[in-house]
Specification:
Radius of gyration: 21 Å
Order of helices and strands: HHHHHHEEEEEEEEHHHHHH
Shape: globular
Number of helices: 12
Largest sheet: 8 strands, mixed
Number of strands: 8
Helix content: 40-55%
Structural class: alpha+beta
Length: about 400
């Protein structure tokens, strides 16, 4: 059954806002009890929010990166785990669009329109660098077999398909294999125990002789080595999550001060929300959040542009705009959730309230890749006009 997907960006944002409001009441409890949000993910899927970028020629709404980023930002303001779960889904749909055959695209995009979800099986534990790939694809007649173990497999407990990054046996060539999550030899282990983003399902996936057809295997290089904006889009979605966390923390702090905080006696006011020093601090935090949101908007426009007209200049501008936004969003996602307690007072530290999840989610998510390299790329371009490198995280 084909889903009814939002046909424009404004409708997608409205649907995301409605669902985020519905999910808000249970967010703290899901985090506290580490209850995997299967029902919530299914609701996002049924609303078409996993199918936003399906190309029009396959019957999809073909919405731009900016529309996806706005959906992520809205959901992250309520639950950063829920916002993280579709990240790999959209990144690998982009890889499919850039490197997959027409037949494979038609197959997978059709499944997505019917509600299918993709999770990553990309990163691995161990090795000298995070870019090493030990998982192998051994070619055989009509396909191959995959053997190895992955970690940080965000979204895998909710997925219908796994996008497996593997190295061809006997070479350094990397490929992406699209494998059914329930294929023989696939084992999904829910062993993610991060201090934040507790319900993303970012645990282990093992592959033991998993068979994959030739037509489900695509080279990774066309997606990451050409000036297509692939990496900028992946990073844009991370920026959207961080920005959403910061906005959610700011709004939670303001609500707490209005409804539960007591004024400090030296302020000489009857309500905490009238404390002039408190209002000053809220003003500072608002600047931090709005700066991140503004930078996200600029970055999203730049990524839209490179998706519309790929090329070296457009790709560089997209990466630089996203790098700027990433720096600001990283700061906002760590500073504002921490300041939530500063402005709300002792009562806000109650464990039953779950307000600490904003800081834990922001701190955990901002560790995804080192923001210092974003600053480095910006500096290199400003001084020496060196474009950022082409890879999956810039």
């Amino acid at each position: 059954m084909t889903l009814t997907t939002p046909l424009d960006a404004a409708r997608a944002a409205r649907v995301a806002t409605e669902l985020a409001a519905r999910f808000a009441d249970g967010a703290a409890a899901r985090d506290r009890d580490r209850r995997l949000p299967h029902a919530e993910v299914e609701a996002l899927s049924q609303a078409g929010l996993f199918a936003l970028t399906v190309p029009a020629r396959f019957g999809g709404p073909d919405l731009p990166p900016s529309a996806v980023a706005e959906v992520f930002r809205i959901i992250a303001g309520t639950d950063a785990s829920l916002a993280q779960i579709p990240h790999s889904h959209y990144v690998y749909l982009t890889a499919l669009r850039l490197a997959g055959s027409e037949e494979l695209q038609g197959n997978i995009f059709g499944q997505v329109l019917a509600g299918a979800r993709i999770a990553n099986a990309q990163s691995e534990r161990g090795g000298k660098t995070v870019a090493e790939v030990a998982t192998t694809l051994t070619r055989g007649p009509g396909g191959g077999r995959i053997d190895g173990e992955k970690f940080y497999c965000t979204g895998s407990p909710y997925a219908n398909l796994l996008a497996v990054l593997a190295r061809e046996a006997g070479s350094e060539q990397q490929v992406i294999a699209f494998v059914p999550a329930d294929a023989p030899g696939v084992t999904i282990v829910d062993d993610w125990n991060g201090l934040g983003q507790r319900t993303t399902g970012s645990g282990t996936v093992r592959f033991d002789g998993v068979q994959v057809d030739d037509d489900a295997i695509v080279p990774r290089s066309p997606a990451v080595s050409a000036p297509t904006g692939y990496g900028a889009f992946a990073q844009l979605l991370h920026v959207a999550i961080d920005t959403g966390v910061a906005r959610g923390a700011l709004e939670a702090a303001a609500e707490f001060v209005r409804t539960r905080s007591r004024p400090w006696f030296e302020a000489g006011v009857d309500r905490a929300q009238d404390d002039p020093l408190l209002l000053q601090r809220f003003g500072e935090l608002t600047v931090t959040v709005r700066a991140a949101e503004a930078a996200l908007t600029v970055a999203a426009t730049a990524v839209d542009a490179v998706f519309t007209a790929p090329g070296p200049d457009a790709a560089a501008q997209a990466s630089l705009a996203v790098a700027t936004a990433k720096v600001l969003a990283d700061r906002a996602a760590t500073e504002v959730p921490s300041a939530l307690f500063e402005v709300s007072g002792t009562r806000s530290a109650g464990g039953d309230l779950g307000l600490d999840r904003y800081w834990r989610d922001g701190r955990t998510h901002t560790l995804h890749d080192p923001v210092r390299y974003k600053t480095h790329h910006l500096g290199r371009f400003t001084v020496n006009q060196e474009r950022p490198p082409l890879h999956g995280v810039v």
